[in-house]
Amino acid sequence: MLRFLFGRLWQSLVLLVIVSVIGFAVLNLAPGGPLSQFALTPGMTQAQLARIAHQMGLDRPLPVQYWEWFTRLLQGDWGRSYRDNQPVLAVIGSHLWATLLLMGTSTLISVLIGTWVGVLGAIRRYSIFDYAATVGAMVALSIPTFWFGLIAIYLFSLRLGWLPAGNMYTIGDGSVLDYAVHLIMPSLVLALVNVAVWSRYMRTAVLDVMNQDFVRTARAKGLTRFAVLMRHILRNALVPMITLLGLQLPTILGGALVTETVFTWPGMGRLFLDSLGYSDYPVVMGLLMLSAILVLIGNLMADIAVAVIDPRIRLG
Amino acid sequence: MTDMAFKIDPAPAPRWWQRRAVRRFLRHRLALFGLAIIVILVLACVFGPYLLPFDDLYIDLRARFSPPFSGPHIFGTDPLGRDLAARLFMAGRISLLVGFAAMLISTVFGSLIGIVAGYYGGKIGAVLMRFVDAMLSFPSIFLLLALAAFIKPSPMMITLIIAATSWMEITRIVEAEIKSLRERDFILAARTLGLSNSQIMFRELLPNAIGPIIVAATLTVARAILLEAYVSFLGYGIQPPLPSWGNMLNGAQQYLASAPWLAIVPGVAITLAVTGFNFVGDGLRDALDARSDIS
């Protein structure tokens, strides 16, 4: 187990380094590089720009710059926002939990719905339900999330007036119920794609498990179909799904960005777009790096969880 | 004498599976439906603008916000009184073109990396595949937006950026396929015959991996159309006055209450196009996958 842990941790660290190199490359693609902000100042001469570049160490070779940037990254110094001069990590931190709340709720919903759609599809294979779920999932994967959000706002806020069209809470209210009401639409919209993906994989996983010998043994012992499903099939089918949850993280994060924009949800996605609008590159870079790091951590945790639950993985 | 010359027949081309694949595909109802959607959309976008009596850029302020199906404008008009149908078709040209072009670039690049990584394996393969893993760690929309905001957006650039964030899946698929094909006897035979590495890679391995590549390429078109819609909707993709399905939705949110068709019409077009490609891709997977038992 320990060896597995270290091996997996080492892999993640290697990936982190490559991710940071990609991030650094993107940063240097910014118009005018990191100097762009100063170049806009009126009366700035080329000589002054060169001096600033020298002060900031931008005239040194790229590998040296990268190393300095990377070590600062590791120490938690992610630079300061151009907008209000706050440390990047603090700016992101104040938006992080809104995104996590949205993602968490949405993932919970999609896991619950997706699991049952997948299980039903597998048990009643080639039934009308199975067919409808398959086609439905493919259509759901094809709908642009933001457009689905717009249509939902049109129907449920503008037409029916049941749900608020955006924001996280009503100013002056902010009770748990108020948050929950605001959470319903964005989390369901974000869940759509994930339900589709989750149900497809769940169906395959259940079909895989259903044909194995221990399921037949359990049935032969006289357990009811329901008991076999709950205690044997579901438990085994859900193990590979943990890995899927890790792999889906980038999609969920990206979906959250778009959903937050449509519903003016004050999370990381909203912050990302605002920062792009203000050319606030340190925050943009911070969010880009943080999202990749979150994904790496998510995958690592998923793999460890699977290894803890399923001893076959550690041995293999 | 010439009759006696010993001729080696070229190995019988594996036409039979191709024909079987076609038969399977034609029996896949959803795939045919998807193909029909794509053909209709492409025809509409290519010929539609010539058939409509309106120019997509003609501004008619008297006809602002005409609802669909109520007058000469079948899909209604936008806040400037431009015909929505004409704009939709012109936008479709851009969106579909960007989708196809991005697919081509990412398929070629992704397959290339996948073949090299799968064939050589070892250190080269490991480095390339770790790079793929790292690229996949970024949510593609974040990466796409950052790149699109940093680089001057032209349709060409947007296409390149979309391709740059969608080649990794193909690489993974091709690498896995090549890795298993590499161990087969016919590759050993090719090597014994003294074929060079590049000959083996591109004349022996690539044709045998073409099935999964075609499937992945089809799904990549769907993905590229979606990604273009995302960035353009958020204002960093195709820039007006050039219309695209994504940037048509850009202004739609503020008129959602008064003119919902501005949001509905382009959104339906995007959904139809993406669904079409996803259906076709799914059908191709069933048709080309020798392991699937739906004969």
TrEMBL record, chain A:
InterPro entries reported in the protein's UniProt record: BPD_transp_1_N, MetI-like, MetI-like_sf
Limits of the ABC transmembrane type-1 domain: 96-302
Family, per entry: Belongs to the binding-protein-dependent transport system permease family.
The entry's keywords: Cell membrane, Membrane, Transmembrane, Transmembrane helix, Transport
Principal cellular location given in the protein's record: membrane
Membrane topology label: Multi-pass membrane protein
Species the sequence originates in: Jiella sonneratiae
Subcellular locations according to the entry: Cell membrane
Top-level taxonomic group: Bacteria
Keyword Amino-acid biosynthesis: no
Name this polypeptide is given: ABC transporter permease
Transmembrane annotation, as ranges: 12-30, 96-119, 131-156, 176-197, 238-263, 283-309
From TrEMBL, chain B:
UniProt topology in membrane: Multi-pass membrane protein
Location(s), subcellular: Cell membrane
Family matches, as CDD domains: TM_PBP2 (cd06261)
SUPFAM superfamilies: MetI-like
Signal peptide coordinates: none
Segments forming domain ABC transmembrane type-1: 92-281
Protein's UniProt keywords contain Hydrolase: no
Keywords: Cell membrane, Membrane, Peptide transport, Protein transport, Transmembrane, Transmembrane helix, Transport
Cell membrane in keyword set: yes
Bilayer-crossing regions: 30-52, 94-119, 131-151, 157-174, 209-238, 258-281
Primary localization class, coarse: membrane
Domain of life of the organism encoding this protein: Bacteria
Similarity comment text for this entry: Belongs to the binding-protein-dependent transport system permease family.
UniProt name for this protein: ABC transporter permease
Organism, as annotated: Jiella sonneratiae
